[in-house]
Amino acid sequence: MLRVGLTGGIGSGKSTVARALADLGAVVVDADAVAREVVEPGMPALAAIRERFGDPVFGSDGALDRAALGRLVFTDPEALADLEAITHPAIWRRTADLLSQAPADAILVHDMPLIVEKDMGADYHLVVVVGVEEDERRARLVKDRGMSEEDARSRIDAQADDDARRAVADVWVDNNGTPGQLDVEVRRLWAERLEPYNENLLHGIRVRRPDALTLSEPREEWAAEAARLVARIERALGVRAATVEHIGSTSVPGLPAKDVIDIQVGVASLADADAADFVETLARTGFPRVDDITHDNAKDGEEWPKRFHGSADPGRVAHVHVREVGSPGYEWALAFRDWLRSDESARDEYAALKMELLGKGLTPSDYAAAKEPWFDSVHERVLAHAAHSPG
After folding, report:
1. FRET partner for 115 with CA separation of 20 to 30 A, picked from 12, 92, 296, 314?
2. Distance, CA of 197 to CA of 140 (rounded, Å)
3. Cβ count near 372 (within 10 Å)
């Protein structure tokens, strides 16, 4: 089951995207609908709200006046915290019930406004953010929801800003255009990423890099993409992973690289990485195991054992290298990365080698093999740098 977190600022059109995904076949759990359900008449949370906030947040019919309650809590952090303490336990219980009812092969979309604010991004295979310029969102709230300018501004200010949303977004859906443009973008997302990703998850298929060798110019977004993968793996594995870090060329600012994110997971023993629960957890998280990759080319004449998992996400090729903490392969991956990060001349030397090999028209496998002599030649320099580095 593919788990998608869908979020966006108030007035962004997130609910429109949720409906479009539901029409395409997704199972949508709407956090706002759940929040309304748990404060319906007769529900325990409603009585607790009346006790805390009094009659002013209730209508003449005895129902909760959500607009009045919103005006109160979004300008008062203490009141908001009290409201959340009342409603969140009930919301999460009901949400868990709904999530558990989804079919095992479903694409499950959790329409959740506060994914960023609640640090929930790592709970999903993908986070989709619907983005609209703040001025436009404010205008929509005034026009479509009848809010005052002041209320609209306070609601927007109470939420995360777009920089924070972009940091967690695997997919940014631009909703500044027309409804037709939004529909096309959502359909493309469904067909090109969500459906294939779900199929790969169900069948344990990893995404492979292209057969043709390509190198990308350095991209600032590699660091953010890696951070999201690291967070998902850390949350999924918990204490079974001693370390989870971004390694490889995409972890070195300013270095051209294949568009592949490499992650190293450090474990106490490879026996832990071979445990069925470890393998299944990574597969469920989006990283199926590749059984025929069991070691690295060593620099000391020996094989450096490891385990290897690949990403099932068609939008992000990623390699997960599982190595024993303190083993030669584990230490060399970190030392090589840190050497390149700190030594500009080494970085330039490696970049020149990459471009030279690219010009020879090699396959990705031949390219990897062709770099081995250079790795061997710099081995002592890498170790010397590591020996003189703090920590």
Report:
1. 314
2. 34
3. 11
